[in-house]
Amino acid sequence: MVIVCAQVHRWVNYESMLKECLVGRMATKVPAALKAMIPPPPPTSLLPPVSVAPPPPDKDSRPRYDWFQTDVTVHLVVYAKRKLPSSGCTQVDLEAGVLRLEVLLGKMSYMIHLRLADEVEGNVSVHTSFSVGKIQVTIRKQTKGKWESLGQPLEFHNTFLRKKDRAPFYRECVLVSKTEVNHNTYVFRLQLPRGTVRHVPVGQHVYLKANIQDTEVVRAYTPVGQNLSVSSNNSSQDSDLYLMIKVYPDGVLTPHLNSLHIGDHLCVSGPEGTFSLRPLRDVTHLYLLAAGTGFTPMARLIQAALQDFESIRQTKLLFFNRREEDILWRCQLDELAANSERFQVEYVLSDPSESWTEKRGRVDESMLKDVLDRPDGSKCYACVCGPTAFTELTIGLLKQQGFSEEELHAFQG
Ligand SMILES: Cc1cc2nc3c(=O)[nH]c(=O)nc-3n(C[C@H](O)[C@H](O)[C@H](O)COP(=O)(O)OP(=O)(O)OC[C@H]3O[C@@H](n4cnc5c(N)ncnc54)[C@H](O)[C@@H]3O)c2cc1C
């Protein structure tokens, strides 16, 4: 037996592990699994880390869960029975002893919903093995001891439903900062509650809900990253939500958002939307056509294309606005284009000043012909986002240019 570490945490020491691993009612298989993996007694009690064996193959493709405990922690394990998207698919909420876990698997959603058996600390940690399809949620007990059960099932516990059949679930987030982007648009940074762990997949949106003059108002917003930087791995480090929001003086929700103070609360739903990064595999040329705040889904998409898709040789953003001062994150876009040969941006203004020398007008056939390059052997994909009229017109024009349904995505509500 090779000892890989001079110092090993007590949890990877079999003797202490077995002594401290109090097994809950639903985890009766765990000792057998552990026993099967225990090699002959080592010369010392130090052993390399142990992984829990995956569940036996099951014809039923429905996810399942299991749990185990030590005297200080409770571990809930979900076996999704398929690979998990690395862009994130798990939402965990722990509040007042109630655990709600939702795993988004394509159009389906698996949910665990329990009132936990005893008091726990507010934090929760989630570890995902994407290729294995395993999600492990760890919660700390408030007092040491053995739990007889994990808890009481609540509504929709252990259900596997179509995502659209579940009502959005809102959490109270705190506004921690508001940064001006231009004369009418701000980035609102929202902090999730302590017991919430979740990630909004690239291109998906959330709903903000507020009560305005006794009426519930709900609007969709697409999270952006903290900035456009490709090297800083801010998406995985930072659990805060960044929403780039244009304030309409005659709007219902945005003037309310604009009046909020730092420390105020806002109700935010989990992710919604149909966009998936999967079609981008093998794509060589990615075209993004955005108008105004239709830029928001493109922001993280640009980062993902440059960071995670080596096959994408060229990502080109065609960004439509009325005037120069309306262009969102222009400096960052220009900097990214200057530093990456794989990214290009072109701005089109419908109402430019006389000094504007770049593209002007509205989207039309000749403009798209000029911008979209489809070299032999390339695999192209185009994404469109903006006001409905812009999106419909642009999608029609792209189809005229030979883009098939499979090569297009329109971000819509
Ligand atoms: C999937 C999806 C994602 C979205 N993501 C974002 C985002 O990331 N950032 C963002 O700022 N907005 C986004 N929106 C738009 C957002 O949901 C609201 O529609 C917008 O903030 C206006 O809300 P309001 O209540 O202030 O205005 P409303 O009361 O709904 O509208 C009042 C007036 O505002 C103007 N107005 C509102 N929306 C538009 C528009 N899109 N184009 C032109 N004029 C408009 C019109 O004059 C309208 O009459 C998204 C919409 C969808 C469907």
From TrEMBL:
Names of required cofactors: FAD
InterPro entries: CBR-like, Cbr1-like_FAD-bd_dom, CS_dom, FAD-bd_FR_type, FNR_nucleotide-bd, HSP20-like_chaperone, OxRdtase_FAD/NAD-bd, Riboflavin_synthase-like_b-brl
Pfam families per the UniProt record, alphabetical: CS, FAD_binding_6, NAD_binding_1
Domain FAD-binding FR-type: 168-278
Binding annotation for FAD: R219, Y221, K246, T296
Keywords assigned by UniProt, alphabetized: FAD, Flavoprotein, Oxidoreductase
Keyword Oxidoreductase: yes
Domain (CS) ranges: 60-151
A GO molecular-function descriptor: oxidoreductase activity
Top-level taxon of origin: Eukaryota
Record GO cellular component, one term: mitochondrion
Stated name of the protein: Cytochrome b5 reductase 4 isoform X1
